[in-house]
Design goal:
Elements (H helix, E strand, L loop, with lengths): L10 E5 L6 E3 L6 E3 L7 E10 L7 E10 L8 E5 L3 H6 L1 H12 L2 E8 L14 E8 L8 H10 L1 H12 L5 E3 L9 H36 L13 E3 L5 E3 H8 L1
Antiparallel strand pairs: 1-4, 2-3, 4-5, 6-8, 6-9, 7-8, 10-11
Helix pairs in contact: 2-4
InterPro entries: Cadherin (IPR039808), Cadherin-like_dom (IPR002126), Cadherin-like_sf (IPR015919)
Main location: membrane
Organism: Urocolius indicus (Red-faced mousebird)
Length: about 250
């Protein structure tokens, strides 16, 4: 709009955006996704621009938005030594630098702090940026290729970002911790657990056996029977009598 003053100020809006899948910045016209999870294909958005004149004039145009499927496996995290507020403020310039140096279409998915840093948002100089990249054929670039190129262009990226933030910048790729338990270590751990279980079971068996023997010993009352192997027998009054005496009395 060539008008000056209030007549030249434009406000942008989406026409008939019933699904609330997109939003638009009314001052800049920049379009954002709100919720397109699980959806792919081309969306046709009708955008209206209106000036602020006494008799407001409007113009409309259809914008085609293509949503491609993306895999979480191809998301790469770039760590910047800058406060999150500064990164959020300059996010479009950061995106431009990454696209220029990687020569791919770069999409910034999220800018965030880790859990330990969230309590000290204003004083933390480490910001995490999730990105994914698509080539000219609209095919998602594998994460390993993105990481490799980020490392190759690390110096150039940091030089350009330093111009944006007006200070030295380091841009590092966050690596997923390697799995420290390989097959051999896993087998050793399993064997150790089995041996430990066997030892515990054996000790429990020994302990139970000892207790049973002690219980039997403490409750064992020897029985006396009359016969050749037992020269003594109990009388009616409970006294012990010799078999010889008993035999004599019998005779």
């Amino acid at each position: 709009d060539p008008d000056s003053g209030d007549n030249g100020l434009l406000q942008y809006s989406l026409v008939d955006n019933q699904a609330d899948e997109f939003d638009i910045n009314e001052n800049t016209g920049q379009i954002f996704t709100v919720s397109v999870a699980g959806k792919t294909g081309t969306f046709y958005l009708e955008v209206q621009a209106a000036d602020q004149g006494t008799r407001s004039l409007t113009a409309r145009m259809t914008v085609n938005v293509t949503v491609d499927s993306s895999s979480s496996n191809n998301i790469v995290v770039v760590v910047l030594n800058q406060k999150i507020g500064a990164v959020e403020k300059n996010i479009l310039q950061v995106k431009r630098v990454l696209e220029d140096k990687l020569t791919w279409n770069v999409y910034i998915i999220d800018v965030y702090l880790n859990e330990q840093q969230q309590q000290a948002r204003s004083s933390t100089d480490v910001t995490y940026t999730k990105i994914t990249a698509f080539d000219d054929a609209n095919q998602e670039v594998p994460a390993e290729d993105v990481k490799r190129k980020l490392k190759e262009q690390k110096s150039n990226i940091e030089t350009e970002l330093a111009k944006i933030f007006a200070t030295s910048v380091t841009a590092a790729v966050e690596e997923t911790p390697a799995d420290s338990t390989g097959p051999d270590q896993t087998a050793a751990i399993v064997l150790g657990v089995l041996l430990a279980c066997t030892l515990v079971a054996f000790l429990a068996y020994v302990l139970i056996t000892i207790r049973k023997k002690r219980y039997r010993h403490s409750n064992h009352q020897p029985e006396r029977t009359e016969g050749i192997d037992n020269p003594c027998a109990a009388g009616k009054d409970g006294s012990v009598r010799s078999l010889e005496t008993l035999e004599h009395m019998h005779n």
